[in-house]
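lol ok so funny story. i was supposed to be doing the assay writeup but got distracted and ended up predicting the structure for this chain instead. priorities right. anyway since i did it might as well share w the group, maybe its usefull for someone
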Amino acid sequence: MRNKWLFIVAISGFFCVAFGAFSAHGLAKTLEPKSLAWIETGLKYQIFHTVALMGLSILQLCNKRFSANKWLNCTALSWVIGILLFSGSLYLFALGVSLSLVWITPIGGTSFLIGWALLSYSCLKKI
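and the output, tada:
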């Protein structure tokens, strides 16, 4: 696979559009406003980090020097973990899956922060 991050971007972007439309049109009549707000928050964070990941992927595609950079790959991985844990847990909560996993959401948020810190660090290291 030429760029695994760009593949993940495509999947995540597709999911954002599909689940966003489904929640706006299909779930709006059945879910409480609080649950819809959880979905909206999850989608906002997911699409924001999907776009950031797309930028990182394009940078790696355009410049081979960046494609094998461990800090940029760790950044991308942190954002993907954040999407899965933060946004994913909000979607599950909204759909009524057990709230006993509430500790997953802040771990996902921390993963987002770690990704941004790694990106900052990679810039200081002059990649």
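Residues 4-124 form one domain. The CA atoms of residues 60 and 67 lie 4 Å apart.
back to the writeup now i swear
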